[in-house]
Structures are given as structure tokens and as C-alpha cells.
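The instructor's notes for this session suggest beginning with a concrete chain rather than abstract definitions. Hand out the sequence below and ask the class to guess, before any prediction is shown, which regions might be ordered.
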Amino acid sequence: MKDSRVFKRLVIAAVLVWMVLFAFAPNLLVLMASLGRTGDTAFVVPGLSLDAYRRLLEPVYGQILLSSLYLAGGVTLICLVCGYPFAAILARTRPPWRGWLLLLVVIPFWTNSLVRTYAMIAILNANGIVNRLLTATGLISAPLPLMYTTGAVLAGLVYTLLPFMVLPLYAALERLDPRYVEAARDLGATPARTFVRIVLPLTMPGIVSGCMLVFLPAVGMFYVADVLGGARTMLLGNFIRDQFLTSRDWPFGAAASVALTLVMGLMLLLYWRSNVRLARKELA
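After discussion, reveal the predicted structure:
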């Protein structure tokens, strides 16, 4: 019994040390850098200046934030519309086939997402699969300019993040008790009414979890915009990367990082409040 308590304390201490070294300390350094200023001999001169945050309020940077949130919202909506039917089919498929379908969902995780993004070039470029298919069927006479567009970035983000939407939805739909659906049908509810009044509310935790898992990474995946958008689509992740590596304006990049962290923290707070509200409804 005593050995068990010692082991638990060691594990908790190890987790705390890990969190301090690799989570709290880096974020504290970023916060301190955002309050500093650039110098002639150093990337950051310590201080308590808010100039970097004031610059973030300029309209051009607000436009970058809004375009990033708009694109991430579009990616989340597409993943939800595509992922929900697939997750529903997955949850209702018999076990031998369900395992194969789940394998198809997780197979992309076996390869680095950057490699998969480069693979999208073979699909979207002028001589890619899409243009060849459309040309062969006679739908187009000349290749479409699919690469280096916002649509290409959108397709790349959806391709990369779709599994993060499917898996939480599958977990929620797999736990759904089919007796609720049967009871609704026995009482005369139409399929659409059963879905809206029964299935959708009971799977809302999976919907919220999937949306969070897709939306938050989509804001900062700068390499997808670089590879498929040709750096023409400026996202918040690209902007932060450029401030650190190109402009060497570390305080400004750190201030943008802090702003992005606050936006993500706000999203997580909304997620937590929605979970609490759903839990209260279930208990009621």
C-alpha cells in the first residue's frame, strides 16, 4: 500500500515537471518575448512594452486573423458534413467490416501529414489525377488551375483533418442507444424529425469534440497553405512563422502567438461550457 502511494506521487511529480518544462515555461517565454522589443544585437530585448499588441490591432492583421478563422470554419463545416454520414455508416456496420472501415480512417496517420500534403500536388496540379480525369471524360478542354488557390488549401486541410472529425463522431454514434430511435419511430416521428430531435442532440458531444479537433489545428497549419496555396493564402500560422524566421521580429510574432493561444483558449472554454450544459440536460 505504501509502495503504491509512493509510485503515484512519483508519477504525479514527473507529470508536473514535464508540464512545467515543456508547456508552462515555453509559453511563459513567448509571453515575455511579446512584451519586449527588437534590438540591434538580440532578437528580443526584455521589457514591458505593449507595442507588439498595438500593432496587432491594425486592420491588415485583423484581416489575416479573420481570414484564418473563416477558412478554419469552412474546413470544419465541410469535415462535419462529410464525416457525419460516414461515421453513422461506420457505427451501424457489422464488426468484420467495421474494423476495415476504421482501418481506412486511421491509415493516413501512418504517414506524416507534410508528406500527405505534398501527395496532394499529384492530384491537383495541371497534369494531376483530377485534370486528367476531367479531360478524359470531355468535361474540360484545358487543365483547370487547381493548385495555388484557396480551394486547394481548403481541400488539403479537409483531407488532413477529416479523420479528427470522424473518430469522435463514430464514438458518439456507436454509444447511441438504438432503442431511442425505435421509440421515436413507434410514436410516429418521421426519419428527419427523429434525426433532429433524437440523434442530433444525443451525438452533440461528438460533434463539438470533432469541431474543436478540426478547427483549432486548421488555424495554424501553415505548411498546407505554403505547399498547396503557394504562400498566396496568408493564414495566422504563416504570419507567425514569417515573423520569427523571415522578418526576425520576434516580439511581434510572439504577440501574435499569444493572441492565437487566447483564441484557442476561448474555444476550449466554450467547449467545456457546452459539455457542462449537455451533461446537465442528460441528468435532467
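Then share the key points. The mean pLDDT is 86. The chain is about 80% helix and 0% strand.
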